[in-house]
Structures are given as structure tokens and as C-alpha cells.
């Protein structure tokens, strides 16, 4: 055949991102990724994080779901039956708060039924937006339909999902792991609910440290320093460090609380830091966690002066009815009037705040339902060793949190939009009635599962009105997706779940609570592998936030460069399990150039027929040995979830070895002509197609649109995503000559360039002895005379 008789089978000159939508539609039509629980293949399951659907998908989610998709695609090519479902989180406080805002209603004076209806309306309105972004990214989710089966889209407020949450509760209740207790708990006056330690964040800022004069009962006075003067009425004791020589003379003395006139003891306690304030600290019920700890330790009963609305009450006396803030201001004014403020300094302060409302939390006694966890810390720590963390150091986030746990998990919340706690109480004797598992219960509007109290025979009951902490729902996603409700045999065969991918900021909530519940129910870790991501930040390394105005919408990125260029950027940019990744439009565009390169070589190679059984020449032997090594490296990287390393290796091989050197070396031979035998020509065809085919297979998990398009055009009607991961192996000592080949080629190119010659101009370079096996190709490539 003559050169002129070769025409590219790929006619389009460039990759067109309009093709993305077309490919996605094909995948859906062909049900390419659907999950069949009956399949013989081993299951690989991914517990995808269900995103909150009331806010659009952000760039960090676009990034991490793309990584999860690559895992799913690689595992599918490796022979697994991949369970990769989409969950949508529709529970929780953010939904309630948005419902209040959008409908201009308050949860406090809206009937429960009506409020729930409004929240549902709002959720249905927003849901489509998130799903669209995920589809545009080309995620190989098992299916996009909502139905109650393994692999389908699920919603956390669905009756089936809530049934599971209640079933886990019923099971834990029957095992004696649940109890109700009155304890001092974290309380958010804005969200009007108790919150768990996992929901507490800290804000560092500078506050007024007030130095207040207290008179001593037997004459003289002392100065204590406090950031919370409004708690004077709740001051129970004053402490100083036993090593603090300034105060050793205070042993056995008593002080009088200003304004209130109550008498408290002054005692030594190691918690007081001599260098903080005056070295004398008042311990109140309750200013912070140390107050709780110390009063508990000294067995001093608390006096509560803040109520659930965040107002001063009871013994707060003249400050009753004021908010905490108002009372603080007024107390300081009153102390100043009486000359009792010695001075006010600025001091750094670490204040516990609610992670949702960002409001300071208070410590208030409430009767709540608890799940035991403190007793199992050692066992939970052991479970962490049974999971493999990516990156390995992220395991410490979980270990540190487990070590930090000091109270049981408070499960009950006084809100509406969540899973109801399935309990009823006998109106006569108070007996707790728990229903059998099997359906979703709503005790606030339903009758109990019994007609008579089993304890006293009474017939009137009160349904529980509280709902669960939303993490109590979220901590059984892995249980739900593996079909615990519907296919127990499948569930037990495939538990633990293969992978939990998630953000580092929810290790102490989502990951920890899942580990806890898995331990309490199954005595097993919930996952084999845990993949923890950091964040996508802006170009200068700043966290993206609406108020700063640096938020990047993934839909905008996709509109500008296409989803495939974004995906190429995701994998080429860096490893998000190692640290934050900076988003850049320019670098996304830059990453897209690799797609152009891939398109161009594919188009060139599409001119030639495939000749897979043709005998090869040393040039093919060299390239095959390089290809074989990049396949092995890529497999190892994919197994280890190190996509960034895989992507960089693949780009290097495809572009800097295969395209720049091998394709250039054999191009002329592939077209044929005088002095080229048919065998030599067919060897080139074999080399070009074997190289390209494997590149497409290797790249398919990362850039699924372009690779599938090219694959179907060139290699058949079935998708690249239905193929096996390449197992091509080839060994040749020519692999050691790569650097010499690269240096030889670059030397000639640079020489011609510096002499102002075109690459097509003749050269008189001598091919060195080591490269003799490739001499015919090199002479043709560089037009060596
Ligand atoms: Zn709050
Ligand atoms: Zn009873």
C-alpha cells in the first residue's frame, strides 16, 4: 500500500466535548454499570458519601467523586462486581434551617406534619441540581433510578432507610447498649438541641479576661480572672495551683462572691495554671469542659443558671431573663460600679461552638437517650488496625478521636426532620415499649405495637417525640447499600464493605460512628479500606467560601473545558489524600492538552490496519518492554489508590515515550515505501495498535469519555469499560536503552533547531553502536543520509 492510501478512521480533527453527553447517554442506554447481586464475580463495594442535596455540588465533591469513580472503573476492569451506588442525604438540621428560611416559618410554631411536608417539598426541588453535576462528570454509578434494591439511588429520608436506622436502634436497645440519662450535655441554643462532642468545633479569638476582686471571709481579698463573669452566680469553688507560692497561704480560706454574697471555698487544684490570668480561677457550672470535669471530680452539685433558650434563669437573680451576652455586659458594668474590676486584659480564647450554627455552645442538663461508647474504646482502637488507611497517616485522626472520647453518644434530638426514635412510654407506670423490627415507625403520630402495658396492663401510651442525631442515620450507609434489609445472605457474605471514601473533617463523626455501630452490631470493622481526602482550595491556598467569594462551581468548569479535561486535571494535579489541592482554571486547561495529544496519536494510528500477530522488530521490542513496565506500575498505583502517580506515569509514557519517540520512529515504516518490507510495515502496525490499545485501557478509569469513544471507533462495538485491565507483559533488554534513544533524538532535534533547519532536513549524524538495532527506524526518522 502507498502512503496516500491510508486514511484515518477517526475523521474528526479534535476531541469535542459535546461527545461527553453522547457517551454518557450510551452508558445509560446500555446499562453498562448496573449491579447484579447474583453475579459470580467477587464484590467490590464503595460506600459513597451521600451529599447533602440542598446545596449544589462543590468543586471538592466533584474532585473526590471523580476519584471514587476511577476506583470503581479500575475494579470493574479487574474482574470485580462493583457496587457503586449514589446516596442522597436528606436528613438533618441544615434542611430544617433552610425550610424555615425559604418558607418563612419557624419550627416552633408550625405543626409537625406541615413542617415535614415543607421540608420534603424543598428537598425535591433541589435534588435534581446535584444529580446533574454528578452525571456530567461521567460517574459510573450503578443506576440513577430510585428503588429499594442493591445498587439503586437511595435517600436517607426514605421510609426504607429510616427503617434500617430504627432497626439498628432496636437491636442495640435489646443488647442493653442504650440508656436514658440526665447529664450535662453540649447544648446549642440556636439549633435548640443537644449535640454530640463530634459536632463541637472550636473558634479561637481574643476575649476580655476580667480580673475581679473577691473579698475573703476572714478579711483581705483575692483577684480571680475569668472570661465568663455572667456565671458568678454559678461559681462553686475557686482554685489555685498547689505549686503557686503566691497562694499557698489561702489554704482553708473562703471567699465571698461579689454581687451575690455567697461563700465558696478556695482550694489547690493542678488544673489552675499560674501563668494564666491571676492564677486564681473560679469554677462554675458550667463555663467549659474543665468546669464539668472538676466539679464532677470534687462531687460538687451544679447550679444551672442558663436555660435552653440561652437566657439567664433561677439563681442568676438580677440578670434573669437576659441573654448570656447581655448578662455578661451587665455583670461587668455592675462590678465596675462597685470598683470590683481590677483590670480587663485581652486574652486568647478557644471557645467550643456548634459546627452548624457556629454559635457558642452551653452546658445544660437534659434528659437524653445515650448509646454506650466509652466502655468500648480499647476494642474500637483494635478495630482500626483491621482497616487499611489511605494515606496511612490519616489513621491517626481516628485514633486521636477515639482516645478523646469521654462521654457516651447522645442520640436524641428535639427536632422534626429526621428519623424518629421508635419508643413509646406507658402513661401509668412509665414502662418503655420498643417495637419489633420490620417497618418504619413514627411514634408521635402512631399507636404503639401493644394494646396493654406488659408491666401494668394500662392502655394509654405516649409516643416518643424526639428524633435521632443525623449521624445515627449516616452511620449505617454501608449496612444499607450491602442490602442488610433485603438480602441478608448477600450482606453477610460481603461484609465488611470494601471501601469508605470520605473527607478528613468527618472522621470523628461519619467514620467514627460507623466504626462504633459496626463494632456493636457485628464485632467487625465496617470497611477493608478507608480513603481520606483533604480539600480543594483556591489558587492561593485559601479555603473556598461564599463570604470570601472564591467559590468555584464545577458546572462552570465543565462548561468551559469539559468534564474530561477536569478529570485529567484531577488526576494530574496531586494526591488529595496527602494534602489540599489548589484549583486552577489555567491548569485545567493545561491538563486538557493531554487529551488533544491522545486524540492526535489515535487519529494517526487509526490510519493503519491492526496486525496483532505480525512479527516485530527491535523498535517494537523496546516499546513493548516500556509498555509492559508502565502497565505493572499503573496496576500497582491503582491498587494503592495513588491515581496521581498513575496519571503522571501514563502521561509520561503516552506522550514522552510512545508518541514522541516510538511513533516518530516507526511512522514512515507504517506507511511503507521503497526499501520497507511488508513484514517490517506490519510490525509497525502491530506496535502502534498494541501501544494505543493498552494506553486507552490504562487511561479508561481516569478519562472514561475520550477513551471509550476512541476504543469503540477503533476496536469494536463494546465499550472500553467492559474490557479487562491490560495484562500485557513483555521483557527485553532494550528497555535499558530508553535514555539513549531519548538523548539521541533530542540531540538531533536541538541541533537542527539551533541551525535553523526543519526536522525534515537531512542529517549526517552517526547512529551510535548501542542503538544499531534501531538504526533503520532512526535513519528514516531523522532523514540521516
Ligand atoms: Zn447550633
Ligand atoms: Zn405500665
3D structure, described in words:
With about 775 residues, the chain is α/β, with parallel strands linked by helices. Helix content is about 40%, strand content about 15%. The chain contains 22 helices and 25 strands. The longest helix is centred in the last third of the chain and has 29 residues, at about 645-670. The chain binds zinc ion (2 copies). One zinc ion binds next to loops.
Distance between the termini: 25 Å
Number of helices: 22
Largest pleated sheet: 7 strands, mixed
Segments where pLDDT lies below 50 for 5+ residues?
none
User: Which class do the helix and strand fractions yield?
Assistant: alpha/beta
Helix % is: 25-40%
- Got a strand count? 25
Average pLDDT confidence is 94
Binned strand content: 15-25%
The radius of gyration computed from the alpha-carbon positions, rounded to a whole number of angstroms, is 34 Å
- The assembly state of the depicted protein chains is single chain
Hetero groups: zinc ion
Q: What's the overall geometry?
A: elongated
Write the layout of secondary structure elements.
Elements: H1 18-30, E1 43-45, H2 59-77, E2 81-83, E3 87-88, H3 93-102, H4 112-136, E4 154-155, H5 159-174, E5 178-188, E6 193-195, E7 200-216, E8 221-226, E9 235-240, E10 254-256, E11 263-268, E12 280-284, H6 289-297, H7 324-337, E13 341-354, E14 362-371, H8 377-384, E15 388-390, H9 395-404, E16 409-410, E17 412-413, E18 424-426, E19 432-433, E20 461-463, E21 467-468, H10 470-474, H11 477-481, H12 488-493, E22 497-503, H13 507-522, E23 527-533, E24 536-537, H14 554-561, H15 563-573, E25 581-582, H16 585-605, H17 618-639, H18 643-671, H19 678-699, H20 704-715, H21 738-754, H22 775-782
Parallel strand pairs: 1-2, 3-4, 9-11, 15-23, 22-23, 24-25
Antiparallel strand pairs: 5-6, 5-14, 7-8, 7-10, 7-13, 9-12, 10-11, 14-16, 17-21, 18-19, 18-20
Helix pairs in contact: 1-20, 3-4, 8-9, 9-13, 14-15, 15-16, 15-18, 16-18, 17-18, 17-19, 18-19, 18-22, 19-20
The structure holds zinc ion (2 copies).
Amino acid at each position: 500500500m502507498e502512503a496516500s492510501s491510508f486514511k484515518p478512521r477517526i475523521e474528526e480533527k479534535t476531541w469535542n466535548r459535546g461527545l461527553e453527553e453522547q457517551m454518557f447517554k450510551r452508558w445509560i442506554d446500555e446499562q453498562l454499570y448496573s449491579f447484579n447481586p447474583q453475579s459470580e464475580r467477587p464484590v467490590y463495594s464503595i460506600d459513597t458519601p451521600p451529599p447533602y442535596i440542598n446545596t449544589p455540588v462543590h468543586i471538592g465533591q466533584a474532585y473526590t467523586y471523580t476519584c471514587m469513580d476511577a476506583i470503581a472503573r479500575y475494579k470493574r476492569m479487574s474482574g470485580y462486581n462493583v457496587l457503586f451506588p449514589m446516596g442522597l442525604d436528606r436528613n438533618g438540621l441544615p434542611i430544617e434551617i433552610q425550610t424555615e428560611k425559604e418558607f418563612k416559618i419557624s419550627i416552633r410554631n408550625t405543626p409537625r406534619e406541615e413542617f415535614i411536608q415543607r421540608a420534603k417539598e424543598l428537598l425535591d426541588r433541589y435534588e435534581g441540581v446535584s444529580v446533574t453535576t454528578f452525571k456530567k462528570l461521567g460517574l459510573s454509578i450503578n443506576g440513577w433510578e430510585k428503588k429499594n434494591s442493591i445498587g439503586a439511588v437511595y435517600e436517607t429520608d426514605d421510609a426504607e432507610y429510616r427503617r434500617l436506622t430504627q432497626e439498628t436502634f432496636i437491636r442495640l436497645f435489646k443488647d442493653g447498649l442504650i440508656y436514658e440519662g440526665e447529664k450535662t450535655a453540649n447544648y446549642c441554643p440556636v439549633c435548640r438541641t443537644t449535640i454530640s462532642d463530634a459536632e463541637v468545633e472550636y473558634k479561637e479569638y481574643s476575649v476580655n479576661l476580667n480580673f475581679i476582686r473577691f473579698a475573703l471571709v476572714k478579711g483581705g481579698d483575692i483577684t480571680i480572672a475569668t472570661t465568663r463573669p455572667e456565671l458568678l452566680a454559678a461559681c462553686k469553688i475557686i482554685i489555685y495551683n498547689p505549686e503557686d507560692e503566691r497562694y499557698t497561704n489561702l489554704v482553708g480560706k473562703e471567699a465571698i462572691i461579689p454581687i451575690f454574697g455567697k461563700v465558696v471555698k478556695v482550694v489547690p487544684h493542678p488544673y489552675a495554671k499560674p501563668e494564666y490570668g491571676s492564677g486564681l480561677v473560679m469554677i462554675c457550672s458550667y463555663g467549659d469542659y474543665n468546669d464539668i470535669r472538676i466539679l464532677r471530680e470534687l462531687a460538687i452539685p451544679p447550679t444551672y443558671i442558663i436555660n435552653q433558650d440561652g437566657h439567664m434563669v433561677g439563681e442568676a437573680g438580677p440578670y434573669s431573663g437576659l441573654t448570656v451576652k447581655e448578662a455578661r455586659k451587665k455583670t461587668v458594668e455592675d462590678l465596675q460600679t462597685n470598683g470590683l474590676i481590677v483590670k480587663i486584659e485581652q486574652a486568647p480564647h478557644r471557645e467550643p461552638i456548634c459546627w452548624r450554627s457556629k454559635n457558642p455552645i452551653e452546658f445544660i442538663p437534659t434528659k437524653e437517650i445515650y448509646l454506650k461508647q466509652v466502655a468500648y474504646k480499647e476494642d474500637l482502637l483494635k478495630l482500626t488496625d483491621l482497616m487499611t488507611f489511605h494515606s496511612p497517616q490519616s489513621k491517626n485522626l481516628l485514633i486521636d478521636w477515639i482516645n478523646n472520647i469521654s462521654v457516651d453518644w447522645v442520640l436524641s434530638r428535639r427536632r422534626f426532620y429526621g428519623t424518629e426514635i421508635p419508643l413509646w412510654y406507658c402513661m401509668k407506670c412509665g414502662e418503655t415499649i420498643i417495637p419489633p423490627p420490620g417497618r418504619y415507625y413514627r411514634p408521635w403520630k402512631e399507636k404503639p405495637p401493644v394494646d396493654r402495658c406488659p408491666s401494668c396492663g394500662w392502655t394509654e401510651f405516649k409516643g416518643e417525640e424526639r428524633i435521632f442525631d443525623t449521624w445515627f442515620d449516616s452511620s449505617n450507609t454501608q449496612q444499607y447499600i450491602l442490602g442488610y434489609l433485603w438480602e441478608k445472605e448477600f450482606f453477610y457474605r460481603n461484609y465488611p464493605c470494601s471501601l469508605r471514601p470520605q473527607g478528613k473533617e468527618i472522621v470523628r463523626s461519619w467514620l467514627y460512628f460507623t466504626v462504633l455501630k459496626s463494632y456493636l452490631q457485628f464485632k467487625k470493622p465496617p470497611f477493608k479500606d478507608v480513603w481520606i481526602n483533604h480539600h480543594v482550595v483556591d489558587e492561593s491556598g485559601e479555603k473556598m467560601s461564599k463570604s470570601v467569594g472564591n467559590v468555584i462551581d464545577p458546572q462552570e468548569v465543565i462548561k468551559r473545558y469539559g468534564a474530561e479535561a477536569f478529570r485529567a486535571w484531577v488526576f494530574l494535579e496531586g494526591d488529595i489524600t496527602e494534602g489540599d489541592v489548589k484549583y486552577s482554571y489555567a491548569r485545567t486547561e493545561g491538563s486538557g492538552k493531554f487529551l488533544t495529544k491522545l486524540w492526535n496519536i489515535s487519529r494517526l494510528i487509526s490510519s493503519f490496519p491492526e496486525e496483532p500477530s505480525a512479527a516485530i522488530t527491535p523498535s517494537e521490542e523496546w516499546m513493548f518492554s516500556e509498555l509492559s513496565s508502565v502497565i505493572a506500575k499503573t496496576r500497582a498505583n491503582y491498587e494503592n489508590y495513588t491515581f496521581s502517580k498513575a496519571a503522571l506515569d501514563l502521561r509520561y509514557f503516552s506522550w514522552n515515550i510512545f508518541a514522541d519517540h516510538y511513533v516518530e520512529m516507526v511512522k514512515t515504516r507504517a506507511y511503507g515505501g521503497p526499501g520497507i518490507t511488508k513484514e517490517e510495515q506490519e510490525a509497525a502496525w502491530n506496535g502502534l495498535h498494541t501501544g494505543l490499545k493498552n494506553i486507552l485501557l490504562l487511561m479508561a478509569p481516569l478519562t472514561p469519555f475520550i477513551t471509550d469513544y476512541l476504543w469503540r471507533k477503533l476496536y469494536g462495538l463494546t465499550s472500553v469499560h467492559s474490557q479487562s485491565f491490560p495484562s500485557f507483559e513483555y521483557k527485553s533488554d532494550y528497555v535499558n536503552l530508553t535514555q539513549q534513544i531519548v538523548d539521541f533524538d533530542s540531540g538531533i532535534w536541538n541541533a537542527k533547531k539551533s541551525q535553523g533547519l526543519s526536522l525534515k532536513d537531512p542529517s549526517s549524524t552517526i547512529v551510535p553502536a548501542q542503538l544499531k538495532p534501531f538504526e533503520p527506524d532512526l535513519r528514516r526518522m531523522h532523514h540521516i543520509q
